[in-house]
Amino acid sequence: MTVFNITLDCAVAPASTPSDAGVAGAGILLAFIITAALALLLSGYIILSELRSSTSSHAISRKLLSGLSDQQIVEGISIQAIGLVRINSMVPYHFFIIWMLSLLSTATNFAALLALVKDYKRDWVLRWLRQAAMFVNLSLTVVFGVFVLEVNMKNLSDTLPIGCVWDADHAKTEENAGSNHALSVAGTIAVISASAIVFVLGTWYLHLRKQLWGRFVRVLSLALLFAIAVAAAVRVVLISQAFGTPSVRLADQGETEWSFGQLLAMVLLVLPFVSALEIYRGELQVPICESQVEPDQMPLTGVNDGGKKRYTYQSNPWFK
After folding, report:
1. 172: confidence class by pLDDT, cuts 50, 70, 90
2. What is the pTM of this model?
3. Cys-Cys crosslink for 176: which of 127, 155, 277, 284, Cβ 3.0 to 4.6 Å?
4. Residue 45 domain flag
């Protein structure tokens, strides 16, 4: 079988497979989990604070959350792109870990969307950039889900490359051939469907001109996203070589060792905090409107003040 002009031997499954610290190393997994945890906690803090007081600002918290969210979605898209490029050599174990990390990234970014939705609605450029990133992330997540679904349905051997899933003559182990994967198949379909539903609802909420059922929708959605993120993180920790017991026999302990790439992923977590510190120390100024009220607290529908309309929903000029 040929994938990306490379011939794959899908007839015989190796006894073990090499580790891949680039996608499942301790530093990579910790960076995703820590970023998601911080972003989710900040999202909850901002949303609950706004529910208690409509005049709260949280400029620094919002800036920090925006940085963490941007970092998470870029890392999520990047690691999924790497996985698709390497389908001729990556085994289902590493492919599944990337899929779980993408779900963690999805939950993080939609939680940030709930907290920062007013910021995105006031600027059509930021709004559509976020929309594009959400669409790319969803597309990659669905593609990964289809691969994982095929693995479960066809009982692909754990040590064969994921690209062999499209080969009708791929090797199977006796254990895989005789096991019942109905639950795994149903779970995979449910996750793919949930990702699509979250995207549709997030898109609707992002482009909604007037916020409806604000408190109920934000709190309920945040709780669901927390649950998805926790489930994905726990699953990654349990099946990874770095923290748990892998589902496939790995030839070495490379995913438990720290390298430059692992350390770099952790160091990048500092960048959003640096931006927040610059704001706090006055290097960057947060604009204040004429009434000395934070811009993110002004109503989206506009307020008449001496015949002037301030801080309305900014429409995309191309679709007026």
Report:
1. low
2. 0.79
3. 155
4. yes
